[in-house]
Amino acid sequence: MSALEKTADAAPSIADAPAGVSDHLVAAGAFSEVERNAVYRAIETRRDVRDQFRPDPLPDDLVRRLLEAAHSAPSVGFMQPWNFILIRQGETRERVWQAFHQANEEACAMFEGDRRAQYQRLKLEGIRKAPLSICITCDTRRGGPVVLGRTHNPDTDVYSTVCAVQNLWLAARAEGVGVGWVSIFHEDAIKTILGIPEHVKIVAWLCIGYVDELYDMPELAVKGWRERLPLDKLVFEEGWQDCEDM
Ligand SMILES: Cc1cc2c(cc1C)N(C[C@H](O)[C@H](O)[C@H](O)COP(=O)(O)O)c1[nH]c(=O)[nH]c(=O)c1N2
Fold first, then answer.
1. What is the three-class DSSP state of 227?
2. What is the pLDDT of residue 7?
3. Which residues neighbour 118 within 8 Å (Cβ) at sequence distance 6 or greater?
4. Residue 173 and residue 107: Cα distance in Å, rounded?
């Protein structure tokens, strides 16, 4: 078939692929029931941890497994825009806590009356308590100026990095390790502390450590801040429907 004869219908097939590509196709059946249950258990029992961290350090091989899980995440155009900055020093975590504290005061002031008092009672970070923090960043220049899949949706580099965060979070749950995501800070304050360049975005500050107990539902629900929404109200067929007052 000449190039002119090729139409949009003539999509590339595996037969057109370079030699050796099909050798990489492996069976993709469902997991066993035990394996499936383990995956769903990690998803359902994963929690955001603020206060339950034990102080004992995490072994290097365990931290490596968490990072491998994060690095296995999908990414736009296989961009892999993430970096993982490991912070164990108390002095650095103290500076980051100060940045959190300042931003948290600002956040608190945005609520009124009882809601403000309720906010003040919430613990929203474990920066000083958790023995390890990992700052996960997104390098917006990784892979050059044109990245497959990102041209019309530039935020997909950040979405990819969030996928890495979630992989790490789920792997940590399976390892008996708690993770708490902190986002209450001015990004520039943390960038200055860690020397992160302008074109690199901070996606997550994760507090990480062993935990003996976890809440059986989101702590914000346990403490009356907000309930889990009913899934059926969030699922639409074929188009948008109004779902106000959520
Ligand atoms: C992008 C992003 C940012 C934050 C969070 C999450 C995510 C996804 N969460 C955790 C959040 O409050 C928590 O996930 C929900 O309350 C649901 O609880 P579980 O994660 O199911 O325990 C969070 N929690 C907190 O105490 N301080 C924070 O600054 C943040 N920031």
1. coil
2. 55
3. 111, 223, 224, 225
4. 29
Nearest to 108 by CA among 124, 99, 120, 125: 120
pLDDT digits 0-9 by tens, 148-177: 999 999 999 999 999 999 999 999 999 999
Question: Can you give the pLDDT at residue 74?
Answer: 98
pTM exceeds cut of 0.90: yes
ipTM: 0.99
Distance (Å, whole) CA 125 – CA 108 = 14
Q: Which of 181, 205, 208 to mutate to test the pocket of ligand 1 (most atoms within 8 A of CB)?
A: 181
Which residue's alpha carbon is nearest to atom 30 within ligand 1? 182
* Ligand 1 atom showing the smallest separation from residue 123 Cα: 26
State residue 53's pLDDT score: 98
For the chain, give the number of residues.
246
**Cβ partners under 8 Å of residue 186, min gap 6:** 99, 102, 103
Domain ranges in the chain are: 47-145+153-212
Q: Exposed, middle or buried by CB within 10 Å (0-12, 13-18, 19+), for 225? A: middle
How far apart, in Å, are the Cα atoms of 176 and each of 22, 47, 79, 211? Answer: 38, 11, 30, 6
> What CATH fold (topology level) applies to the domain 47-145+153-212?
NADH Oxidase (3.40.109)
Residue 49's nearest CA partner among 166, 134, 127 is 127
